[in-house]
Amino acid sequence: xxxxxxxxxxxxxxxxxxxxxxxxxxxxxxxxxxxxxxxxxxxxxxxxxxxxxxxxxxxxxxxxxxxxxxxxxxxxxxxxxxxxxxxxxxxxxxxxxxxxxxxxxxxxxxxxxxxxxxxxxxxxxxxxxxxxxxxxxxxxxxxxxxxxxxxxxxxxxxxxxxxxxxxxxxxxxxxxxxxxx
Length: 181
Description:
By secondary structure, this protein is α/β, with parallel strands linked by helices. It has 7 helices and 8 strands, in the order βαβαβαβββαβαβαα. The chain has helices spanning 11-24, 41-44, 62-73, 104-121, 134-137, 160-163, 171-180, and strands at 2-6, 32-37, 52-56, 79-83, 91-95, 98-101, 125-127, 153-157.
């Protein structure tokens, strides 16, 4: 499983939050790919971490970075996770009012179960609701609510046509629209 993380100007957050979270989820460093501006390489490269640091031209904005990742780095049909660079914790809801922190078992079950569901439904993108409100994260909330499918945590099967970005703002909305078409 590849874990894709675009980042810029957040090296401390990346390690203190996201990489720490991924290590608690038992994800190996060699399956983590962080995409950064080339001029920030020294800030992101750390001893005792063997994550893959991919440097891109400094002039790349978020849209161009995502286009590079999906169009050139990943293979068509490749199964991945994409995380924001400031994820400290993830929660699941066993009921409408309870938030529970992920365990590594829940993390991997979510990943593999989601891929099976995506393939069975002929879909290629799923996301975790980014709110901390248990009601909106619960299984009782509509499962096809595209309005909450934003980029904080995504499980996807790479589809270059659907992942192509044209806009620098609202890229999540554009991504959802391309997948719904």
